[in-house]
Known about the structure:
- The protein is an alpha/beta fold.
- The chain has a seven-stranded mixed β-sheet with strand order 4-5-6-7-11-8-12, covered by helices on one side. Strands 3-2-1-13-14-15 form a six-stranded mixed β-sheet, with no helix packed on it.
- The chain starts with 17 loop residues before the first strand and ends with a strand.
- The protein has six helices and 15 strands.
- α1 runs parallel beside α2.
- A hairpin with a 4-residue loop joins β14 and β15.
Amino acid sequence: MKSGPLTFKTAVHDASAFSFAVIGDTEARPHINDRLAQAIWGERPHFVINVGDLTDGGQRPHRFEWTLEYFLGLNQLLGRIPTLPVPGNGESDLYWYQHYHALPPPHHYYTFGFGNAEFFLLDSNRPLGPGSDQYDWLDRQLGRSNARWKFVAHHHPAYTSDEDDYGDTWRGGSQLGDANVRGIVPLYEKHSVDIVFFGHLHTYERSWPIADGRVDLDRGVRYIQTGGAGGNLEDFTPTRNWFTTKLYRGHHYCLLNVFGGHLSFQMFDVEGRLRDAFELNK
């Protein structure tokens, strides 16, 4: 059997403009995945980052979630543009995750450079706090990086306004984020990471720049929750949180364009409508 034409493009030169998309929580909704894949392919980004839960529960006994759901929904995109994933709780045993992806050892966390940026992809299912392998690895990698832009991606949230995953906000308090991930946040601030992407919650949220537990427009790190690529939609706390600058409940994808010291960010819903945007200059 022959496929139709498939494509790939090698990485751009350091001084060249480039574009990438970010999605998360594709899970078991190929009809949503297909619509987002069409929209992203229409933009022709250089690559896509998927921040985890590629499947709804795609451990070793559940290969069908890969072959009949994930690949079925995203085939038109996966065959044309590289996808760089991080593992979510849906891929917890990593069996098919490692089988289907050619990633640098140890496979579940890694780094790569593209243009004048460097990307650091972590496994938030495993320890991230001080003393952990990933904490020490990231401290070394960020410390030696001379990239102009630094991006981090993992599955679980550092800050989130989700209504009930970290405490029932309709009845009481909430941690408003994952304690394991909070353990590595000081490294993001220490090494001036620009944007951290994550999913796990099936909504969109963009934070203010944050440093030392408060909004800091000069030194802060931006956090973007983008878990709207297919999973059942969730909802937000009944009151607004101090770190929030934009919320959206709906399926979506993010698109970033980078050239030199300029970054343009856009978030589109499944109908192609612009729902959020901002620009950064360094």
